[in-house]
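Dear Dr. H.,

I hope your travels went smoothly. While you were away I took the liberty of generating a structure for the chain from your last submission, since the lab meeting agenda had it listed for discussion. I wanted you to have the full record in hand beforehand rather than looking at slides cold. The sequence, exactly as received, is reproduced here:
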Amino acid sequence: MALLAGAWNPPTVAHVAMGRAALKWAERVVLAIPRALPHKAYAGVAFERRMEWIRKVAAGEEGFAAAVTEGGLFVEMAREARAAGAERVFLVCGRDAAERIVGWNYGVGAGIVEQMTEYELLVADRCGSYEAPAELAPRVHRMELGMDWEEVSSTLVRERIERSEEWTSLVPAAIGEDVARAFGAKIR
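The corresponding predicted structure, in token form, is as follows:
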């Protein structure tokens, strides 16, 4: 199982591309939204709307599903996936997220090396490729997206909406109208 977790504010075509690429490694890709984020609070668009977005996106993609996780850290999500029957768990992310995850201060308890005995990372290039530390390298895999999605992000969608620029090509068509309503934008 591959878990693609995020805040989904909003989901983008790059997320879909990452999920499709992850299907080369896993039988199912789960778009996951943590009930509580470990590094920030949900602001703006309501959690329920974000969940509906990922459900709609997943419904349009073969091999995709959507789920809410109780844990917000990757190791917590991996444990939930294993409890649901997954034998091998991949967490899907971009280079920037991989750097944050590996460099995160986990405080007292299991560090990243120990945590990653429970899951592997599938990392897409994002403004550069990720080079894992030697002790993690066997559990970190580069994911090929096939196109240049590095600049597409939820932040870019929101910025384009704020500037009244074209943004609809950056989000899956299945959620375009709802994203427009959520952000008070026009569909272009």
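Two observations you may find useful: The mean pLDDT is 92. The beta strands are 2-5, 29-34, 64-69, 90-94, 120-124, 140-143.

With kind regards,
E. W.
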